[in-house]
Amino acid sequence: MGNIRKIAITACSLMLVFGLAACGSNNNSSSDNKANNSTGDTAANDSSSNTATNNANANASDSKIDTKDFETITYVMLGDKPKNGQLEKVMDKINVIMKDKINAELQLKWVEWADWQTKYNLLLASGEPIDLINIGTDWLDTWGNAQRGAFLPLNDLLEKYAPQTWSEIPPEDWDQSKYKNDIVLIPEDHYTQWVNHGLYYRGDWAKEFGITQPITDFATFGKYLQGIKDNKKDVIPFDSAGAATTFYTGFAASETDNIELPISTGYVNAFYGKSYDDRYTVDSPIFNDQFIDFAKMLKQWGDAGYWREDVLNYKGDTRAELRAGQTGVDAHHTQTFKNLRVQMDKDQPGSELQMFSYSDTRGNLISMPITHGGTSIGAHSKHPERALMAYELIRQDKEVYQLFNYGIQGVQYDIKDGVRVRPAGYDDAKDGFYSDFWGGRVDKFEIPSDQDWSGIGDIYKKYDAIKKPFPYGKFVFDKSAVDPEMTAISQVLGEQMPAILAGKAGDPEKAVAALRDKLKAAGYDKVKDEIQKQLDAFKASEQG
């Protein structure tokens, strides 16, 4: 997912993530950062806001809901906590409303991007009384955590404590939010976004190097990298922060027919569907013969100096370097691109930032699952009822929603002709705000932004013309029979894959063979057989 990044999304899907992952913020350093979608008619939302406010007041005054005791609700976000003081100012305003409507305050807790996967899962396994927490089934191991009992079943709570959200989400989307028979998450199913991943590059430099058509394959992208190496002194072609996991995602989408299964194996996902047409057959990009050729290409790129020699230990901010003209590549998904293009037009005038989406190669594009983003309640929450009421306010109250997503009008943004613009004198370092919320954004309260690139609609149309529907929305893998093997596989991938993707694993054929042997020893075939058994049962249920 991006620089880990999810998905995501989608998300990332992250996404990302994360979009990865995942990953609703203006935090450009996040690995599954997902920029706000620019749909939504603010003028048409007043009645929705009034309805939401009335519902919230009705909740708080309902004699069956006891809110006399003040409660503090925590919400776990993925991302680096803002340090300029604006988050606290926004939360003060939100908490005035929270206190008035549900006699509670909201406190954000942060799982920062450094080693985020480990920290996130350890937090859920710790037994800590988490209230609300961002989730993503395609990049945050949501189903694995559900199987481990990390989330509270919501079946008997939603209709009473989040009634508008309950009625807004259709039954088929609730079905995709269940582990076994329990609803364990609230999906972000009313927010339009694309979190397909790819590589960003400078269009002006590509033209300078003789690349006059949009880049749609890795071979041409290699020519772009070599052009930077040959012509741009003191510029590292791709100053990646650590091994670019995006290359693995890119290989699967652009060089194979594989489509990703919602089964997490840590650093990268080992198990995919064979193709969209053969989606009930388990396969893996790692065991595709072309993966060896891809590893050879990455070794050539590493040897050519397209990234740092010590790339595996480098911790810099690739996106900040791109904006400063110090590198020529970044990686994430379409939602990030639509904002980054505008930023680059200002920071590097004439750069004409472009995106090589991995789906451009062969049209291998699957729509994002509705559970790429969402929110769960921790199994040990002490305030699940009030937590749902707080979530309802974030998702259904227009004032709270726009504070939580955009900040304070007049400080973070103004509105001109129905579009969000930066106020006069705005300084991103001093005034910037983000909450990294991708747990329940809704199109109805979104405000279009002048920070969204005007050409993004054409890209959306291109994707819409080739996309295939996500086929695994109701497939939840039960890994209880192979849990030790799944853990071992994740460890192998985390140990072996980074060096391969960075071209730093020595002879590529030997490195890939060693990876495969270690995966086999860790129980790859046993896990594959178990997934296949469950996919066969899923296919039977889908086909009646």
From TrEMBL:
Residues in DUF3502 domain copies: 471-540
Annotated transmembrane regions: none
UniProt keyword terms in alphabetical order: Signal
Signal sequence interval, chain numbering: 1-21
InterPro entries assigned: DUF3502
Superkingdom of source: Bacteria
Residue segments, region Disordered: 28-61
Pfam families assigned: DUF3502
Protein name: DUF3502 domain-containing protein
Protein's organism: Paenibacillus albus
